[in-house]
Amino acid sequence: MSRPLTGPEREDDPRRVEPGVHNRPVAVEEQRVVTKPARTSAAAAFALAFGVAAFVCVLIVILSPVGLVLGIVGLVLGVFGLRAARRVGITGKGVAIAGLVLSALAIVISIAFAAGMVTVLNNDSAVDRIEQQLDQMRDKLPDHVEVPQP
User: Fold this and answer.
1) Among candidates 54, 47, 127, which has minimal Cα distance to 81?
2) Which residues contact 43 (CB under 8 A, 6 or more apart)?
3) CA-CA distance, 7 to 124, in Å (whole number)?
4) In which band, very low, low, confident or very high, does the pLDDT at 21 lie, cut at 50, 70 and 90?
């Protein structure tokens, strides 16, 4: 004969009744485990914030040097965030990795942009072409501009 999967006939059911004991339910002791919620590492969160800010600054070309500095700070914070995420009760490994990736991308793009600018500015023929184009654009501007008064 097989035993039921659920109900008062199961041995581990709190409603189980022992035979010959006046049909009283067996007392079951409940244990509750209280755990603290895991905290996200502050370094990991700041690494992500600095990584996003660095990436946005690098995409706005004029702010590329600011993006480089923010990327370096984000990279350092990301490493600290990964180390902190190893400890018990602290999360944020994925957040730290995202911050590291964005910071590294910002640094690479910023260095590539700086290298491109240095290459162009050190090339005399490229500088001459830029000056010629600026002179042509300046010649196309009108001499006098009349602004109507309201």
Assistant:
1) 47
2) 77, 78, 80, 81, 84, 92, 96
3) 90
4) low
